[in-house]
Amino acid sequence: MDSYIHAGEPAPVMIRKRSKAAAVLLSLILPGTGHLYLGELPRGLAFMVLLISNIVMLVFAGMNDIPLKVLAIVFLSLLIPVIYVVTLFDSLHQAEYINRQSQAAAGAYPGMHPQPHQPFSVRR
Fold first, then answer.
1. What local confidence, expressed as pLDDT, does residue 34 receive?
2. CA angle, 32 as apex, 70 and 20 as ends, to 5°?
3. Model confidence pLDDT, tens digit, residues 24-68
4. How far from 27 is each of 5, 31, 49, CA to CA, in Å?
5. Helices 69-106 and 20-29 meet at what angle, rounded to 10?
6. What is the pTM of this model?
7. Which of 31, 92, 94, 95 could be joined to 87 by an S-S link, Cβ 3.0–4.6 Å?
């Protein structure tokens, strides 16, 4: 096999294998940190901003006299566990996807060609 990179060919992409347990544990501590560990900066920051904005709106609803105050507090309170579950599930699947890409780049799956990882993309 030729180890030289020819002109016009993209350099091989090596993706380091990531621990699924570490990604899930970090996401359990604070949603979004598991994605930051996986190298998914935009997705991790989006989950962090979502959780923080939810908490800010919850505090705002509790401190101010707004219409349907109780309904707003209940809805925002129930949204926090949903954010945690979605973040845990997504970080687990992102770690699995990154590890599969790493194995494909190493030649573990002969029929699978590694592709550069693109966050927020639809995978077929």
1. 95
2. 125
3. 999 999 999 999 999 999 999 999 999 999 999 999 988 888 888
4. 39, 5, 14
5. 160
6. 0.70
7. 31
Q: How far is CA 15 from the centre of its chain?
A: 16
For residue 96, give the amino acid letter: E
**Angle at the Cα of 36 (from 34 to 41), degrees rounded to 5?**
135
22 and 37 Cβ atoms separated by less than 8 Å = yes
Question: Which tokens is 99 given?
Answer: 């590890």
Between CA 94 and CA 101 the distance in angstroms is 11
Is the Cβ–Cβ distance between 27 and 88 less than 8 Å?
yes
